[in-house]
């Protein structure tokens, strides 16, 4: 094989779905692994489904994620244009070539006739009616401007076999292949036809795509064979499932890259996780940088079985990336979420220190910090903790002592505040938890918080800490 050339050929029909991003990622990684080229092509032949702004989303997502293409609409290349609608005149020429060789034919059937064909399990199969029109009749109908499409003339006997790098040899009976439309009545090519023409003209010799194309690939191969062109290498990837029964789907509104970013996931974590949806490295690594993905990716690691998109696994992976950020990196990235909390009276560095190791996504930050602004009456039953052996009576006894200990702390920081609480526990002859638990509840009114009592007290400051303790004590 000459230099490997892969491509990502999305349709601009909305946001870039996770499955599409994985196709782009694998195609990019394999091209780089093999010292090849990765090409972006926009397949916009279905004008009815075109969504304004979708092309810009594709460009932006690929740039942000580092999946940079060597050739494409906005970077140029030797095989342009890289937008299918700008190549319209190419397709009809090749379709007519197939008509001349008998591998395709003009079809003038009306919508009414097509709807009258037998409905077998919800599908109407075309019956080759127009294949039998004489050449003279075809020419006459074309001359008077009758509406037509061009259909591929599929063989009705035998079978077609091809090899897939993941699934091995795939054989489809030719009798199952319908005479698909190549050129639509508006003169635009169908996806299936333009795909083959463009892949050949752009020198694409490795096609990576989802398993939904396993059964239709023979249609493409028959086109390659009809033109006398070399078939590309095929690598089909397993589907990404929402659960055991449903595929992750753009049509169902499932996650896009930009949705995940808005939900507080980091770019590196998203790409890392998407890489693992259908592939695993030889060393079974889970957390991998983009550079590590480029060095470890190998098509032998692509799985045959479907992968389930697990939000919890993605959140866990994201938390690992968050923990590795420097305090400044975290503060910079977390700024929009912290700003939403209106915490102008609190030390930003302490806020970040409190939550960095305790969130899985940045979107959790407002909820984690809500107690700083909202300190409402809470149920005193929160003082009850079987493990720490505390209850309301314990709190009533301990909290005045906590208040006194805090009031006497000279340096108001976590180290000295924690030391005061531990010293109090020792003086009372009890375990630390019997002091720490009631103190934290009294300061937050919450069973779960992003930090312990002394960390929260440091952030609240002396005056607010003592005010909250006084209020909680008065409620007991």
From TrEMBL:
Its main location: cytoplasm. Residues 329-472 form the Aminoacyl-tRNA synthetase class I anticodon-binding domain. A motif ('KMSKS' region) lies at residues 247-251. Pfam families: Anticodon_2, tRNA-synt_1c. It catalyses: tRNA(Glu) + L-glutamate + ATP = L-glutamyl-tRNA(Glu) + AMP + diphosphate. Monomer. This is Glutamate--tRNA ligase. It comes from Candidatus Fimimonas merdipullorum. The gene is gltX.
């Amino acid at each position: 094989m000459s230099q490997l050339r892969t491509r990502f050929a999305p349709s601009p029909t909305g946001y870039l779905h996770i499955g599409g991003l994985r196709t782009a990622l694998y195609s990019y990684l394999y091209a780089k692994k093999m010292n090849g080229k990765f090409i972006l092509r926009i397949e916009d032949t279905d004008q009815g489904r075109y969504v304004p702004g979708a092309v810009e989303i594709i460009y932006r997502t690929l740039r942000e994620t580092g999946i940079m293409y060597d050739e494409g609409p906005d970077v140029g290349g030797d095989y342009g244009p890289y937008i299918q609608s700008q190549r319209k005149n190419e397709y009809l020429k090749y379709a007519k070539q197939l008509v001349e060789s008998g591998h395709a034919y003009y079809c003038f059937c009306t919508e009414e006739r097509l709807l009258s064909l037998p409905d077998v399990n919800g599908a109407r199969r075309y019956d080759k009616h127009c294949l039998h029109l004489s050449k003279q009749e075809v020419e006459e109908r074309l001359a008077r401007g009758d509406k037509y499409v061009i259909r591929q003339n599929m063989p009705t006997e035998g079978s077609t076999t091809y090899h897939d790098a993941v699934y091995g040899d795939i054989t489809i009976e030719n009798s199952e292949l319908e005479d698909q439309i190549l050129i639509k009545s508006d003169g635009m090519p169908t996806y299936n036809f333009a795909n083959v023409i463009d892949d050949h003209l752009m020198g694409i010799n490795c096609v990576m795509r989802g398993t939904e194309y396993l059964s239709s690939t023979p249609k493409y191969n028959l086109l390659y064979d009809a033109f006398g062109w070399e078939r590309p290498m095929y690598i089909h990837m397993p589907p990404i499932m929402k659960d055991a029964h449903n595929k992750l789907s753009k049509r169902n509104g499932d996650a896009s890259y930009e949705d995940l970013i808005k939900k507080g996931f980091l770019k590196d974590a998203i790409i890392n996780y998407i890489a693992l949806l259908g592939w695993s490295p030889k060393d079974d690594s889970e957390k991998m940088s983009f550079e590590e993905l480029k060095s470890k990716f190998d098509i032998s690691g692509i799985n045959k079985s479907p992968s389930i998109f697990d939000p919890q696994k993605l959140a866990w992976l994201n938390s690992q990336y968050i923990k590795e950020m420097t305090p400044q990196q975290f503060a910079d990235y977390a700024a929009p979420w912290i700003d939403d909390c209106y915490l102008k009276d609190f030390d930003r560095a302490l806020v970040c220190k409190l939550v960095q190791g305790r969130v899985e996504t940045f979107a959790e930050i407002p909820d984690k910090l809500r107690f700083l602004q909202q300190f409402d009456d809470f149920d005193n039953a929160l003082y009850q903790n079987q493990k720490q052996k505390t209850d309301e009576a314990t709190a009533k006894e301990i909290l005045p002592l906590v208040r006194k200990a805090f009031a006497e702390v000279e340096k108001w920081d976590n180290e000295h505040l924690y030391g005061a609480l531990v010293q109090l526990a020792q003086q009372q002859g009890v375990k630390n938890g019997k002091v720490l638990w009631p103190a934290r509840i009294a300061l937050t009114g919450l069973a779960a918080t992003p930090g312990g009592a002394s960390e929260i007290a440091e952030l609240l400051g002396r005056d607010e800490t003592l005010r909250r303790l006084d209020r909680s004590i008065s409620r007991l």
